[in-house]
Amino acid sequence: MEAENRAEKQAENRAEEQAESHAEEQAESRAGNRAGEGTPRRRVAPDRRRSLIVDEVLAGEEVRIEEVAENLGVSVVTVYRDVQILEGAGLIERSKGVLRPRASSTAELPPGIRRTKSPREKAALSRAAASLVSPGDVLMIDDSSTALPMVAELESVCPLTVVTNSMVVGRVLAESKTAELVLIGGRYLPWADAFYGSLATSFVEGVRADLCVMSDAAVWGDGVYNPVDVVVELKRAMLRQSSRRVLLVDSTKFERRAWQKTAPLKAFDTILVDGRTRGEHVDMLRSGGAEVVVVPVDGDTMGV
Description:
This protein is α/β, with parallel strands linked by helices. Helices cover 39% and strands 22% of the residues. Helix 8 runs parallel beside helix 9.
């Protein structure tokens, strides 16, 4: 019953967001016409727009709402509405029209926002990761946005068992006719749309997987990093319980910072990195001893 109620609530939220998006589009169009513009302003999907707002806030110590609205080409009212949602998620804070960051890393962003970042790179990495999955495998996959697109690539792999803490992955595979879904339980964290905590970690310790595919918030030196304790603990458990461990790294991970080391690079058997990654970063990954595969990104003529 609780799961049904949650699903109904999520469906209501999606419907509300669609209605809100339509209302915003009409409001922006009217605002553009009143300002004497010939065409309505550029439309940006709500998740993408909120992602851009967070990026702008994280890039500096503070920014004014009017400045954000001007940079995005939307009304101040729209930005205020987005800010209320981002404040509720604990990502930013507002004081007298000025926005300041609260999240220390993009790892703490909701999955809907994280998925809008580097989508082509993540799609390429996910296709490469899916090619490593064989029929009969038990696949462990976390809730990292870099790994999420691979779920759609698994339809042809049968039979397959997928163990995950991600509600996003769970919703997709719940409709699958070929994959068996094992959902890791525990403490549900709304900002991640996933399960974490001691119960989730204990569950994973009772599972044995053939393959684990994951990403992390940042790559630095000889390891991968994350700012959230419970996330680090669950990722470590997933690695311990898997025979083969695959890390997905898009080129933006080298620009980010997180204070807590999840695992050394040598903990992974294979590291997939997108073709837009600088050569020095590829060399850094190879120094850990893992197999490093540079994956071309659609539309690029060459990789590293």
